[in-house]
Give the backbone structure.
Amino acid sequence: MARILSKEVKNRIINNGEGRLYAVSDFADLNNDASVTRTLSRLENENFLIRLSQGLYLYPIRNQYGIHKPSLNTIAQAIAEKDQSQIIPSGLTALNALGLSTQVPTNAIYLTNGSPRTISVGNRKIIFKKSVPRNFAYQSNLFSLVVQAMREIGEQNITDEIVLKIKEILSKEKNQEAVEQDLLIAPQWIRRKLNSK
């Protein structure tokens, strides 16, 4: 029975393709969490899966150069998808994502409307911080990223040059109508900065 279950788990992972994340809950329909846990652990020992953190495994993309590990952002997005929650890069993570900072943060911080938690990936961490619904009210993902980046810089430190860069970034958003709508619900000081000529 255990061998059949183990084979089923491995086949499903192969059929779903590379670059996907797995947890025991993905195999809940097999009604044997203990066996699934042992199988995932064994597949990690065989270098078939990579254990990213407690109970979270990656079926990596492999090419001629070896194993391609996903970025912290890719992992964070996959976790959010699995949790059926929304996330927004915050702090230095937001600045880096927008190209407003070349500094790569050691830890990737995200606001979430799901469960707050910290996941260690090697010597780095993905931190999910519970946030208010208002932060998830924006229609444009790019705009919500801009709001987080501007908050990280701070109202007093935003120069005209930064405002120009941000306006340029927002001009690349395909749905400009969403940007205009989002501007209306943005914090007052952000609205004032972005409306300045």
